[in-house]
Structure formats: structure tokens, C-alpha cells
């Protein structure tokens, strides 16, 4: 950990909220983020299980799966748009407002997917409408994360920033757990053809209930104290935060994005629906759909645990050291993944997915705190949101489609393993380039420190 910031006695005048309010903020951002990502991951899972059959009727064989996974990736192309909008208005109007807008946008698009007719009913209009709704999900996801993590981290005391910031991070595997769990329940209620006919729709329509819960939870949360300080003194407000961000911090944005890309590429093997499709495909392993969904649900629970642990331990080891450990463990999990999955044994598949979540959690839980500590207060929402969106685009966006294309081209998963290991190495190198800034003051009075010293080779 950098000695410049590790002293527990550092005073942070921006933290003025009570411990009870900080707990409410963490609960609201965690639960709200889980609901948002339930919607997002639900699509990815159903793309691998259902959409390649029902929405892309004339496409045969592996090509249908590739195109279906491409629709998963298309949403990532629009995450930067959501990040630009959310970052700009998050720096101008506040983090809380952005979170309410993204919640309703995501939930509305998800519910409409549940009502969408199939290709057999309306022809080519079905995949077109599906893609449009997926784009709305992408815009929403691009704006959600930055607002949620800044509310959590900017309310947190300096020495617990990683732990508080792990709340919204937990929301992501919680969304996977919830979506996989609901799909597993519906697979049991409506097995076989019933699942294809109507069972898959119920989890999408259930989003209406979850949006109502998310609104109720988020409406009472106070705005970030850092943002409130910024609006009190107008000279600290960046009139054009996006322009300032790219003029002064472009290298930082892309190197920090590569850190997340190293995690996202591997994580989207399950969150993007690839493993679910690969394991259950009748032309391949033909494993039981219900069993695979249960295995993914268990892995999501494990991912939550290690994500929380990463946030907690990063407050002591530092963000950078936690990343280095995490990427090493992630590489080990990647090497073991397909040799175990390819056995076709459900227990070994479960072990593979559980093992993978150790490294995934340890390269994810500290992400909120690390990103918040990288950018000056006046442009922080823009910096965090856009860096995350670019990292998602470089990493998770088309990872399932690339994996499907590699298997289709080579006939084996060896190339996929090489692809995932390469992404992990890139993430590791990017994390090692960045200087550890754990516990750097986040308030407006420290913008000079916040704007410099980002890289290990730069002057302090």
C-alpha cells in the first residue's frame, strides 16, 4: 500500500453522514444493482438457452448461437453512450438521479422482452425488436454502475472504502445468482418444451416487481456528500467533465479499463451465457439444463463471497496487491475450466465454475474503490462510468461470441483457454502499471493530489 495514504488518522471532511445512513446507502446500491444486473444477465442466460432457437429461426447449427451471443455483445457497444450520459449528468445533477433513471430504463426493457413474440410469429421483426430492447439495456447498464459505486464509496470512511465499495460489486454476482436461480425454478416448473413455449418469459416479467422494490429502496437515499460539496462551490464544478477527462486523463482511462477487461472477459463465460450454452447444447456435451443452471447459481454465490472478501482485504493489502493476487488465481482457474467442463460430469463442471470465482472475486471486489480513487472529484462520475464502459466493451462485450466462434473454427476449447489467459495477463499488467492510491482523500479540497501520480513510473 502507498505510504502516502495508509495512515488511518487522515481526516476526510467530506464524510459527514452517519453510520446508519452509510449502511442504508450500501444496502440501496447493492440491492438496486442486483436488480439491474438480474435483468441484464437474464438476457445473456436466455440467449444461450432459448433465443438462438426462438428468435433466429432460419439460422442453423453453431451460427445461430454465434449470432445470439452477438446480441449479448451489441449492448456493450451502447454502454459508452449510457456512461457518457450518466457521467455527465452524474457530475452535473448528482449520482442519485442517474440511478433512478437507469433502474426504470433497464426494468422496462426487460419486461418488454418477456412480452416479445418469437420469429415464428412475426418473422424478422422479432430479432430486430430484441436487439433494440437489448440496446436499451446496454445504455442503462453503462450508466448504472458508476452512480452506484460512487454513492457507496463517497459515503464511506477512508479505511473501509474497499468494503463499502464491494456492496455494488456484490450486486453483480447477486444478479447472476438471482437470474440463474429463477431460471432453474422455472425449468423445474415448466420443463422441456414448456420452458421454450412460456417458461422463459416469467423471469423477464418478474422484473416489474423487482423495479418496484428497487425504487422503494433507492428513493430515500441521500446524495453523495462529495457531490453536495462540489455544488456548494461552483468553481470546483467542471463545466465540461467529459472534455476535461479526455484532455487530461486519456491514458489513465484506457489502462484502468484494461484492468476491468481482464476480469470481464473471463467472467462473461458464465454471465454472458457461454458456459450454459456450451454445456447444454445437444450437438456438444448435452448436459442437463437444470443441473447446469444450479451449478451457475452456486458459482454466483461463491463469486459474491470472494467479491466481498476482495473489497475487505483491499483495505489492508491495497487495491493493487489484491489485483495481482486475484489475477494469478484467475489464471489458474482459467487453465482448469474447460478440462473439467469437457468431461461432461456435472460435479466437475460445478468445481470448475466454483474455482473460477476465486480469482474473479479477487479481481472484482475492489473495483469500485480503485476507480473512485483514480479520478478528481469534479469529473469522477464521468471517469468512473466511462472507464468501466470501455473496459466492458474491450473485455466482456463479445467474449461469448468470440468463444463460440473459436470453438466453431477449431473444433476444441484450447483456443478459448488461450484467449482467456491472454486477457488475464493483460489485466495483470495493467494493474501493475497503476500506482496504489488506497485511502487517497476524495473531497474537492484534494483535487491536485487526485489528478496526478496515477502510474507507478510517474512522479509522486
Automatic annotation (TrEMBL):
It is a multi-pass membrane protein. Its main location: membrane. InterPro entries: MFS (IPR011701), MFS_dom (IPR020846), MFS_trans_sf (IPR036259), Sugar_transporter_CS (IPR005829). It is found in: Cell membrane. This is Sugar phosphate permease. GO terms for molecular function: transmembrane transporter activity. Keywords: Cell membrane, Membrane, Transmembrane, Transmembrane helix, Transport. The chain crosses the membrane at residues 62-85, 97-116, 174-192, 198-217, 252-270, 290-310, 322-341, 347-365, 386-407, 413-434. It comes from Corynebacterium spheniscorum. Pfam families: MFS_1. Coiled coil: none annotated. Residues 25-439 form the Major facilitator superfamily (MFS) profile domain. One of its GO terms (cellular component) is plasma membrane. CDD domains: MFS_ShiA_like.
Amino acid at each position: 500500500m502507498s505510504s502516502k495514504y495508509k495512515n488511518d488518522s487522515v481526516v476526510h471532511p467530506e464524510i459527514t453522514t452517519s453510520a446508519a445512513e452509510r449502511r442504508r446507502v450500501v444496502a440501496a446500491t447493492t440491492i438496486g444493482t442486483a436488480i439491474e444486473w438480474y435483468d441484464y444477465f437474464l438476457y445473456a442466460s436466455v440467449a444461450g438457452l432459448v433465443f438462438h432457437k426462438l428468435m433466429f429461426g432460419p439460422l442453423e447449427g453453431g451460427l445461430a448461437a454465434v449470432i445470439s451471443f452477438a446480441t449479448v455483445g451489441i449492448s456493450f457497444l451502447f454502454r459508452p453512450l449510457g456512461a457518457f450520459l450518466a457521467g455527465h449528468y452524474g457530475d452535473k445533477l448528482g449520482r442519485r438521479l442517474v440511478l433512478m433513471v437507469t433502474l426504470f430504463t433497464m426494468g422496462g426493457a426487460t419486461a418488454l422482452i418477456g412480452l416479445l413474440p418469437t420469429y415464428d410469429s412475426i418473422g424478422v421483426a422479432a430479432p430486430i425488436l430484441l436487439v433494440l430492447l437489448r440496446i436499451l439495456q446496454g445504455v442503462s447498464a453503462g450508466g448504472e454502475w458508476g452512480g452506484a459505486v460512487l454513492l457507496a464509496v463517497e459515503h464511506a470512511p477512508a479505511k473501509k472504502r474497499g468494503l463499502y465499495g464491494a456492496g455494488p460489486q456484490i450486486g453483480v454476482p447477486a444478479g447472476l445468482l438471482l437470474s440463474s436461480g429463477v431460471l432453474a425454478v422455472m425449468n423445474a416448473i415448466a420443463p422441456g418444451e414448456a420452458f421454450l413455449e412460456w417458461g422463459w418469459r416469467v423471469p423477464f416479467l418478474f422484473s416489474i416487481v423487482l423495479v418496484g422494490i428497487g425504487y422503494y429502496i433507492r428513493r430515500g437515499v441521500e446524495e453523495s456528500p462529495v457531490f453536495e460539496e462540489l455544488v456548494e462551490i461552483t468553481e470546483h464544478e467542471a463545466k465540461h467533465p467529459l472534455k476535461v477527462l479526455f484532455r487530461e486523463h486519456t491514458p489513465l482511462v484506457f489502462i484502468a479499463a484494461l484492468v476491468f477487461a481482464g476480469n470481464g472477459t473471463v467472467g462473461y463465460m458464465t454471465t454472458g451465457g457461454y458456459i450454459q450454452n456450451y454445456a447444454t447444447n445437444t450437438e456438444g456435451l448435452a448436459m442437463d439444463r437444470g443441473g447446469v443452471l444450479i451449478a451457475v447459481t452456486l458459482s454466483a454465490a461463491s463469486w459474491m463471497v470472494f467479491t466481498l472478501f476482495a473489497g475487505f482485504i483491499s483495505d489492508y493489502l491495497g487495491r493493487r496487491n489484491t489485483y495481482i493476487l486475484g489475477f494469478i488465481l484467475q489464471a489458474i482457474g482459467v487453465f482448469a475450466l474447460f478440462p473439467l467442463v469437457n468431461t461432461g460430469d456435472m460435479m466437475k463442471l460445478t468445481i470448475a465454475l466454483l474455482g473460477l470465482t476465486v480469482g474473479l472475486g479477487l479481481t472484482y471486489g475492489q473495483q469500485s474503490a480503485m476507480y473512485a480513487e483514480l479520478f478528481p472529484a469534479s469529473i469522477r462520475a464521468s471517469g468512473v462510468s466511462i472507464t468501466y464502459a470501455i473496459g466492458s466493451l474491450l473485455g466482456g462485450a463479445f467474449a461469448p461470441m468470440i468463444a463460440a466462434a473459436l470453438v466453431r473454427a477449431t473444433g476444441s476449447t484450447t483456443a478459448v483457454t488461450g484467449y482467456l489467459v491472454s486477457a488475464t495477463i493483460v489485466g495483470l499488467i495493467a494493474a501493475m502499471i497503476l500506482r496504489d492510491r488506497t485511502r487517497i482523500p476524495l473531497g474537492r479540497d484534494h483535487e491536485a493530489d487526485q489528478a496526478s501520480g496515477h502510474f507507478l513510473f510517474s512522479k509522486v
